[in-house]
Every structure is written in structure tokens, then in C-alpha cells.
Amino acid sequence: MIEQTLQFIRTQLSEDPTIDLDADEIVADNLHVLQSQTNQDGLFYSLINIEEEPSLRNQPNYDKINGQLRRIEPPIILNLYILFAFKMTTYNASISKLSKLIGFFQTNKWFNINELSDTQSFSPPLDKIVFELYNMNFEQMNHIWSVLGGNHYPSVVYKVRVVKVQRDVQHDASEVTSIELKSGVSN
Prior knowledge:
The chain has 187 residues and is an alpha+beta fold.
């Protein structure tokens, strides 16, 4: 599911005429690639963190299928933190592309997956992917770039919500048909 989401982002960005990058100029990889591929310009993006969405944690895990009660563990809803960095021939070109990327996500804050034909391969199925600009202070950004190799490129971090991860495993469950209450009070 995570890999499919990253590929979906690449497809959407490569189809946008304002960003004006081909699919081969958009690289989803570890950002150490920025240092090692000195001859390649473009947009490099990488997954830098994953967290569970706590507000969607309490979902029912029982479902009635063909009259049979089944226990199905609820899906894990994930937020992905993705760093987008531009390495172009000039610094001004990188800043320009970064501005266009922010503009792209400003006008495309979410994608309704059910309306897009190339997303039917998502397993489990997704309804929506939401993009939120994630604010980082200087210290956090410095720490990330230090871990990634030291050189800082024009970049931005987006929180991508909601990625659903669920295995298709079901177990038989017994149905509660009655409840007996006993009171400690005697008449």
C-alpha cells in the first residue's frame, strides 16, 4: 500500500503541466541518491516517517457476512511524511519548481481515489489521499538533512493522509444473543 501510494504521487506529478517534469525526472528513493547521482536533475522524494492516525483507531472489528459473524481486525490508518526536494541545474530553477509543487498541492489537496481509473490496484481499496503541508522548524530540517548527507536542497515536507493497511484475514466469531444480569441486591 505504501509503495502504491508513492507511485500514485509520481504519476500525478508527472501528468501536471505546470511542474513540467517527465516521470523519469521524478525519483522516489532514499535521498542519498541526490549525492550519488550528480548528473541527474529533477524532483527527488522520500518517505521520512510513518505514523498511525490515532483519531481513526477505534473502529469495529466485527462484521456480518452472509449471516455469519466474522472478526476482522480493523485496518491501520497511516500518515506518511514525504520530503520533496528539487535538484535542478540552478538554484533559481529549483526554487521555481518547488513553488510549482506547492501550488500543485494547494490546488490538489486531496485525490478521490474512486474517481481515478489508475487506482483500482490499491489493496486494500482507498477512498481518499489527503496532502497537508507539514511545518518544520530550522532544527528539525537541519537534523533531517544532516542524516541524509549534509547538503541541503530546496525542499518541503507533506503529510499524506490516509493510507490504509489491512490484511485480508477473517476469523469466526461467536455472536452475543443474550445478556444475563445478576444483581447483588436481594429483595
